[in-house]
């Protein structure tokens, strides 16, 4: 039973990476902007957070650095696609490629670097409960912050005027513009906020999930986060659930290996990505369902003068 508790704890840890990034991408897409550069954002933020902690010894400064790196890159992306009207998909792919190369270049000197001793977290009393304690109450604080963030985003999007405006910009930017809302600035703010969350996810990878730096260590998590927003049909609660589902699939490979299951390691390693493809294939069988939930102007440029 203890092994199941550890598996569940690992699932929450792995799912948090995807949940933070996916919630950031969801904010982008609710405003009508698709950012395919999530992989590059995660990589640059991972090395930014890691390098800062190596030099300062403070995880929280490292998380701030990761968020800053993600926000700056996202702002550059936003200016290109929102003001200069470059193609969102091509620009996002360029950002992904840039992030992979730039992080490898900057991180070359940090491959052998070591972080300060990692702190261990446990909620008093609750963390000592047999089975449940190790599974739920000995997580990094960001695990609980992520859950609160998902529910806070639900409240923001569906219970506040600002959330309504953000969704209207993603649904009909021309109508929002006609009502006097600064569509471009709202979209840029959404892109920067989403980039900051992707940056937090990248820093979480290098500081908590696998506390080290290796070139390409994000290993496709940015692409899975992108797929997860579609899988969740742009709903924060479903994003959270889907992230933990994919996190469970990711950690299942290590659990099976530890239990002596005789399967090729390559097959186990591809399991999360295979699950992503299967889920997207199943969703794609009902395109009308996707269209109903998808922001109507997703991926479409906005021309204020038109």
Automatic annotation (TrEMBL):
Principal localisation: membrane
Domain of life: Bacteria
One Pfam family here: BPD_transp_2
Cellular localisation: Cell membrane
Keyword line: Cell membrane, Membrane, Transmembrane, Transmembrane helix
GO MF assignments: transmembrane transporter activity
Transmembrane segments: 6-26, 33-54, 60-84, 91-111, 141-158, 188-207, 213-232, 239-255, 267-284
Membrane topology of this protein: Multi-pass membrane protein
Record-linked InterPro entries: ABC_BtuC-like (IPR037294), ABC_transp_permease (IPR001851)
Gene Ontology cellular-component terms listed: plasma membrane
Keyword Transmembrane helix assigned: yes
Name of the featured protein: ABC transporter permease
Organism: Rhodoferax sediminis
């Amino acid at each position: 039973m203890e092994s199941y508790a550890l598996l569940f704890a690992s699932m929450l840890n792995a799912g948090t990476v995807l949940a933070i990034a996916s919630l950031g991408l969801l904010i982008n897409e609710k405003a009508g902007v698709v950012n395919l550069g999530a992989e590059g954002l995660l990589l640059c933020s991972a090395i930014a957070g890691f390098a800062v902690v190596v030099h300062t010894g403070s995880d929280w400064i490292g998380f701030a650095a990761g968020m800053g790196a993600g926000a700056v890159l996202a702002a550059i992306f936003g200016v290109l696609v929102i003001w200069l009207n470059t193609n969102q998909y091509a620009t996002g792919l360029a950002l992904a490629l840039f992030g992979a190369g730039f992080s490898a270049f900057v991180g070359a000197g940090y491959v052998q670097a070591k972080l300060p001793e990692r702190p261990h977290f446990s909620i008093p009393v609750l963390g000592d409960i047999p089975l449940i304690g190790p599974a739920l109450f000995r997580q990094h604080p960001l695990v609980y912050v992520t859950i609160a963030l998902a529910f806070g985003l639900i409240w923001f999007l569906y219970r506040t005027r600002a959330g309504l405006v953000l969704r209207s910009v993603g649904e009909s930017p021309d109508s929002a513009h006609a009502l006097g809302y600064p569509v471009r600035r709202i979209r840029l703010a959404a892109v920067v906020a989403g980039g900051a969350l992707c940056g937090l996810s990248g820093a979480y990878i290098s500081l908590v999930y696998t506390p080290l730096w290796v070139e390409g260590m994000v290993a496709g998590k940015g692409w899975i986060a992108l797929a997860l927003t579609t899988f969740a049909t742009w709903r924060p609660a479903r994003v959270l659930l889907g992230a933990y589902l994919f996190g469970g699939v990711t950690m299942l490979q290590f659990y099976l290996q530890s239990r002596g299951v005789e399967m090729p390691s390559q097959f186990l390693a591809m399991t999360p990505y295979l699950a992503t493809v299967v889920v997207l294939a199943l969703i794609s069988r009902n395109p009308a369902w996707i269209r109903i939930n998808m922001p109507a102007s997703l991926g479409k440029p906005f021309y204020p003068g038109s």
